[in-house]
């Protein structure tokens, strides 16, 4: 992760390293750190560099990771809003679209009032796994 941090420091206008850093932090369970990084860069336009840019990182990658970290830090409204923005993109790859639909459902499930069942638990919302672009 240090290499990604140094790469981003060297070229702050290039966010591919930031994406990789945030993704790895999230996978390691460091949701707040990843979310803080992403919050400052989501929506940044792709630079005019000609070489080696990964356009998808700017178009939907950062926002996808943000939607996941928002969920894990408990900002369900931000997660839902990010998912809605992703789902409005006509060029969003189908595997990412499917996962975004699921991720949105998880976030919506956290905002809905709990329905007590016979055991006093919450029905239909026990699963809280949210996958990332690296896992689909």
From TrEMBL:
Biased segments, Polar residues type: 127-136
Protein name: Tetratricopeptide repeat protein
UniProt-annotated stretches for the region Disordered: 111-136
